[in-house]
Design brief:
Length: 342
């Protein structure tokens, strides 16, 4: 394998130290992905340079011109503190004719907007929860079309930001309060969906043209009380103590209805293509008791931390962490950007 110069873009607050010796899991957690990717790429034999970015494109440009990386590994999930600006960084790299890992700007734009993505998927008859969008600065009128309980979330934020038990609402007053919360605290439009009771499934997808899906993964809520919604709130995702207390874990989805594995694999590839994604992604689904699957969201560039769902499900498919990072690099190098065919 060729030794490559790999420039890893990351949020400037998440540039990891060289070693994690002596640090606790809690201390490592915020920049674990960044650390794992840098360490994994170095272990794979590459020449790796982490680069912290916040709101200055010049930092990226200078480093690329100076160091001439073979590829830029894109771990940025925002720019200027704005989540939807991540697509512009991919655009910038593409306009510089630089190869980069992960999703292309169009895929980022379509998939990261949970409302836009559902509008497109509905056209293609992909099953998604019924929904409405409440824009900021507009009155919150109740909708008769949707059936309570409803789930209120941000149209564009990720990582369950703003999602807690209070996101599941059962009447119009609570709906209004929670929409106001998303508008004022999360500071984005609000997406209100019918709440889908059921199992929580994740499926990884890799590829540009030829796609591969990873084994179906499931989040379990073993010790979570029955009266509490079994959903991936921010606490469920990120609070290690809370996870222990409520028996939250993820692993291979067992005892799925017959044929669902193949059905999901096919569905994921369709969604990935409809949303023009490339590189790697992860689809989040709910499986209702009647066997119907609903897409909750399509994640371009999902969390790549070692031991997280995407890497674990790859491992299950026989792809080691280093091999996974290498594949992501290969896909980035092979991606045919429009400028190459213009
Ligand atoms: N319509 C829904 N019905 C049931 N649970 C939902 C619904 N929408 C979101 N959730 C729960 O909230 C979690 C986070 O929502 P998601 O749309 O995946 O946003 P994020 O980008 O924050 O991961 C999901 O993993 C799921 O547990
Ligand atoms: Mg999600």
């Amino acid at each position: 394998m060729k030794r490559l110069r790999v420039l890893v873009l990351m949020h400037e607050d998440l540039v990891p130290p060289d070693t994690i010796a002596g640090l606790s899991d809690e201390e490592i957690a915020p920049w674990k992905t960044e650390y794992d990717v840098v360490a994994g790429l170095s272990n794979a034999g590459h020449d790796v340079r982490p680069l912290g970015v916040f709101s200055d494109l010049g930092v990226i440009r200078r480093e690329i011109l100076r160091w001439k990386p073979h590829i830029t590994f894109n771990l940025l999930e925002e720019f200027h503190g704005v989540a939807v600006y991540d697509q512009h960084v991919a655009s910038y790299l593409e306009l510089m004719c630089e190869p980069y890992t992960g999703c292309n700007p169009r895929g980022l734009m379509l998939a990261h907007d949970k409302a836009l993505c559902k509008k497109i998927l509905s056209y293609h008859r992909v099953s998604v929860p019924d929904f409405v969008v409440y824009q900021r600065r507009r009155a919150v009128k109740p909708v008769a079309r949707l059936k309570f309980p409803l789930l209120v979330k941000s149209t564009t934020e990720e990582a369950s930001l703003g999602i807690s038990q209070a996101s599941v609402v059962t009447n119009n007053d609570k709906l209004r309060d929670r929409v106001a919360f998303v508008h004022e605290q999360v500071k984005t439009d609000a997406l209100v969906e019918e709440y889908i009771e059921g199992r929580e499934l994740y499926v990884g997808v890799m590829g540009n043209q030829r796609l591969q899906t990873l084994p179906v993964w499931e989040m379990s809520f073993r010790k979570m009380p029955e009266h509490v919604a079994h959903i991936a709130t921010a606490k469920v995702k990120w609070d290690l103590e809370y996870q222990k207390k409520h028996g939250i874990s993820t692993g291979v989805a067992k005892h799925l209805p017959e044929g669902l594995d193949a059905q999901l694999a096919k569905l994921c590839k369709r969604i990935y293509r409809i949303l023009e994604m490339s590189g790697y992604g992860r689809m989040d689904f709910r499986l209702a008791a009647d066997g119907q699957v609903y897409l909750l969201e399509a994640n371009p560039n999902p969390n790549l931390a070692y031991g997280e769902d995407f890497a674990e499900s790859a491992e299950q498919a026989g792809i080691s962490y280093e091999a996974l990072l290498q594949r992501i690099i290969n896909l980035g190098l092979r991606y045919r950007a429009p400028w190459q065919t213009a």
